[in-house]
Amino acid sequence: MKKLLKGARVLDPARGLDGVMDVLIEGGKISAVDKEVTAGDAEVVDLTGLVLVPGLVDMHVHFRDPGFQYKEDIESGSRSAAAGGFTTVACMPNTNPPVDNAALVSYVISKAERVGLVRVLPVGCVSKGRQGREMAEIGDMAAAGAVAFSDDGKPVADSSLMRRALLYASMFDRVVIDHCEEPALSEGGVMNEGYISTVLGLPGTPRSAEETAVARDIILAGETGARVHIAHVSTRGSVELIRRAKAEGVRVSCEVTPHHLVLTEEVVMGYDTCAKVNPPLRTEEDVEALIEGLKDGTIDAIATDHAPHSEDEKDLEFDRAAFGISGLETALGLVLTCLVTPGKLSLSEAVRKMTREPAGILGVEAGTLKPGSSADITVIDPDREWTVNKYDFLSKGKNTPFHGWKLKGKAVMTFTGGKMVFKDAAWERDRKARIVYKTGGSPRP
Amino acid sequence: MFKHRHLLGLGKLTAEDIAYILRLTASFKEIIDRDVKKFPTLKGKAVVNLFYEASTRTRNSFELAAKYLSADTISFASSGSSVEKGETLKDTAKTLEMMGVDAIVIRHGSSGAAEFLSRHVRVPVINAGDGTHEHPTQALLDMFTVMEKKGTLSGLKVAIVGDILHSRVARSNIFGFTKMGAEVYVAGPATLMPPDVEKTGARLAGTVDEAVKDADVVMALRIQLERQKKGMFPTAKEYSGFFGINGERLKLAKPDALLLHPGPVNRGLELCSEVVDGLQSLINEQVRNGVAVRMAVLYILIGGGRK
User: Fold this and answer.
1) Interchain proximity B195–A199, CB inside 8 Å
2) Does B110 touch chain A (CB under 8 A)?
């Protein structure tokens, strides 16, 4: 079956493509990207006025499977990803049991394949049982398909273990992803330490908890020559440390979440547990530094840290509520509305940081429209205005601080391997009505 | 006059709101001084004291305040209750609301618990201390005590000394006194000082002596001994030497300065016995005024004083 996607603005930052072009899909792969492609027997999809980009890649999600399927599972997580425009996600191993061996890596891969909506790439644990003591079977897991290693949710607090893990993982050309947090400094903290924590009387997590761990990881990566990836940077200081390390040639990369790019600690006022997240939301000054870091290349990728929780775990006293934000279905809309539209980041840069960059860090073939590659494609309507409604989320996690936000720009179709895995029904209805109206026909009653 | 449905903290009130409560407190205090302390104002109303943390004076004070106004009261302590069976705060409060109570007084270890509760029940919620956030009725009684002696709060220098970081009393007093025009100085170990405390309107003194110098009011806070175990300061002995209020240090304040403490006092730690029992101490008066303040608050929220 051939499909011809016609007339969209095609954007592939990996190859420097940007222009109105047609994309031909054949046998699940991209067979041509060019002006005016013709293929007589292909099913033609008219995408005039829309933007076509490589399927988005999210290198940091929590699908909670196995063990916490009441929060999310690989199926609901895959649906949520597709609805957010993502075709490839890397899922963190803080499950129960933790993904710390090859059998569990295979479980995640095979369940995701059975679901068959998006590519789910398992991240394996750095340490056995995520206990931070002994190294897990990194080689076996890599052979089974783990794309990276992390004890995410927890830092690797033992510097010697971290150093050995960096060296060991580098033999398999895998990156170690660290959730940077010095536990002794962050103990008890539930929000950013600062004026707002003072007013609310909530225990604060100082920036130093993140920055000391970032500095340590940079030093270890520099010394070993191995690659390290810093998850969800949240402070100006972290950005500065990473900028300097990159300039010195240290093999460090990092990501930032949409919520750290658009929210500050102010939203915790009123004890809104949907704004309780780790690392915590910081201040205006940090947000500016994060955006600057995205622009100058210090920050490589935008990743959601999609962390679904049940309502019972969030509708609690603030200090007892779980950390995390359900982020897959708002990420693209937030980036377009809050960064691209106001001119803080070009569309092409934003797409690069949600496609090619994270794919490159993970060393996977994804995030490009190069002919011959899998037809993973996201179609964006940049003018689509919509209101975030958590009850419409396909994720089980309705925990979002963005409920009710009005956003502009949305993924309206998602293809994985040439197969349509998501189409926005409300958008399609409106588009059809508009086309009928324009061509002078009367809309159906 | 008073538009708020709940009393969650002084951070949310205006100076006018506070002045209104203090004015009413004066008339309720008169009732406590009478021989027969029973007024029918809240007859037919029921108040529940929902206490998740140990408390003697605040709980008894609220209970008496409600009883003097003829309300029915029940006390709910978390131990030996459904809480031990794993019931959430939200569910416990809903249950009590369904039984028909007219107000919930809550003391809870989590900052924001009172505000959380106010989003889940329809009846007024009165914060009797939430974590390290606020303890509004304590600050109101402190302000009332000072007002009685000084006639005004405006222009006074108030020194708050001790563990500001973990003190809900300090937060409520900073918000309350600054709104009423007083100058609040805070002092204590740097490890127990919240970040950006000056943005709250308080002034950060470098030493206790600097805070106490020429003060009209000196308020010492209770040191919770578990803080010492966490290493927030080296020893109790060192604390009392650098941060405790003794007779000599109190002499730095104005001669007619008032000494306050929210109780219970660790004698010899944050306060020496000589000042606890001294002439400037209003610690016992504070307790008496606490009942009057709580009567005023109950009257305002459920007795028709909210207009």
Assistant:
1) no
2) yes
CATH number of the domain enclosing B173: 3.40.50.1370
Nearest-CA distance A318 → chain B (Å): 7
**CB nearest B133 (choices: A195, A201, A204):** A201
Looking at the structure, tell me whether residues A211 and A322 fall in a common domain: yes
Looking at residue A438, what is its pLDDT? 59
Helices (H), chain B: 15-32, 57-68, 89-98, 113-118, 136-150, 168-179, 208-212, 225-229, 236-243, 247-250, 273-276, 283-302
Q: Does B134 sit within 8 Å of A198, measured CB to CB?
A: no
Whether A444 maps to a domain, the answer reads: no
- pLDDT (tens digit per residue) in B42-67: 999 999 999 999 888 899 999 999 99
Distance of CA B39 to the CA centre of its chain: 25
Q: How confident is the model at residue B187 (pLDDT cuts 50, 70, 90)?
A: very high
Ligand-binding site membership of A383 (annotated): no
B chain contacts of residue A193, beta-carbon cutoff 8 Å: 195
C-beta atoms of B116 and A271 within 8 A:
yes
HEC assignment per residue over chain A: CEEEEEEEEEEEHHHCEEEEEEEEEECCEEEEEECCCCCCCCEEEECCCCEEEECEEEEEECCCCCCCCCCCCHHHHHHHHHHCCEEEEEECCCCCCCCCCHHHHHHHHHHHHHHCCCEEEEEECCEHHHCCCCECCHHHHHHHCCCEECCCCCCCCCHHHHHHHHHHHHHCCCEEEECCCCHHHHCCCCEECCHHHHHHCCCEECHHHHHHHHHHHHHHHHHHCCCEEECCCCCHHHHHHHHHHHHCCCCEEEEECHHHHHCCHHHHCCCCHHHCCCCCCCCHHHHHHHHHHHHHCCCCEECCCECCCCHHHHCCCHHHCCCCECCCCCHHHHHHHHHHCCCCCCHHHHHHHCCHHHHHHHCCCCCCCCCCCECCEEEEEEEEEEECCHHHCCCCCCCCCCCCCEEEEEEEEEEECCEEEEECHHHHHHHHHHHHHHCCCCCCC
pLDDT one-digit tens code per residue, A132-166: 999 999 999 999 999 999 999 899 999 999 999 99
pLDDT, mean of residues B208-232 = 90
**Domain range holding A111?**
54-362
All residues of chain B having their beta carbon less than 8 Å from the beta carbon of residue A204 are 195
Domain that holds residue B191: 136-284
- Best residue of B10, B89, B116 to probe chain A, by most A CBs closer than 10 Å: B116
- Total CB pairs under 8 A between chain A and B: 63
B9 located within any domain? no
Q: Verify that A155 and A286 share a domain, yes or no.
A: yes
**B88–chain A Cβ distance below 8 A for any pair:** yes
Task: Write down the catalytic residue from A305, A376, A381, A424.
Answer: A305
Which residues of A lie closer than 8 Å to B, measured between beta carbons? 193-195, 197-204, 270-271, 312, 315-320
SS3 percent helix, strand, coil of chain B, rounded to 5, is 45, 15, 40
| Domain total of chain B | 2
Residue A305 appears among annotated catalytic residues:
yes
Last residue of a domain, one of A329, A362, A395: A362
B53 reaches A (C-beta below 8 A): no
Q: Which residue has the higher pLDDT, B118 or B32?
A: B118
Please judge whether A271 and B115 are an interchain contact, meaning their C-beta atoms are less than 8 angstroms apart: yes
Q: Is residue B7 part of a domain?
A: no
